[in-house]
């Protein structure tokens, strides 16, 4: 990945960051998560020649409305966030010509909604967010969410989903098989896919170490 960039109006970016910092209280989607996603997005945008004026506000605001993962309204989270983001950007006087692409990038970033990315900017934001679910930080976030939702760590009868479908509403380790280990295949940009492939190897090593500690294989 190449050097990060910024939107031309740094004052507005700082304003957006300050706004998000007040709202990002969810343990897995806190301001540190958002800052990591923005950093990923800047690097990928530069490598993929995507428009910073779209990518960066979308990355900052992609989780500006948080709905718990176990809520029946979870699938609406990215749309609600996109609507709220545009309302705030309008109040800030952010250029209207970027609003539509920013809205789409936020809506399409979500894994659960499965909305196709129609622009390179949306692809960049989606990849940037998914990278934060991989590697050491992805492992930490996965375990934190499992604890927050009071899930069991693994299914004692079949910890690694050999003979059953994964269910990450009951078992934290199942989330690896239901989502995390599949993410490199879903990456939309070449630079994002390269980084995801590196990070998923860390998760695979964790699974192998866990296997050695809890099974007799």
Distance separating the two termini = 39 Å
Q: CATH architecture of the largest domain, please?
A: Orthogonal Bundle
Number of domains: 2
% residues in beta strands:
under 5%
> Which spans of ≥5 residues are poorly predicted at pLDDT below 50?
none
The outline comes out as elongated
Top-tier CATH class of the largest domain? Mainly Alpha
Q: Quick one: how many beta strands? A: 0
What level of helicity do the residues show?
55-70%
Largest sheet: none
Quickly count the helices: 10
What is the CATH homologous superfamily assignment of the largest domain?
HD-domain/PDEase-like
CATH topology of the largest domain: Cyclin A, domain 1
Structural class: mainly alpha
Overall average residue pLDDT: 87
Main attributes?
single chain, 217 residues, mainly alpha, Cyclin A, domain 1, Hypothetical protein af1432, 2 domains, 59% helix, elongated
Overview of this structure, please?
The chain is mostly helical and 217 residues long. It folds into two domains: 1-118, Cyclin A, domain 1 (Orthogonal Bundle), CATH 1.10.472.50; 133-217, Orthogonal Bundle (Hypothetical protein af1432), CATH 1.10.3210. Helices cover 59% and strands 0% of the residues. Helix 1 packs parallel to helix 3 (52-61), helix 3 runs parallel beside helix 6 (120-131) and helix 4 runs antiparallel to helix 5 (99-108). The radius of gyration is 18 Å and the shape is elongated. The model has no long low-confidence stretch (mean pLDDT 87).
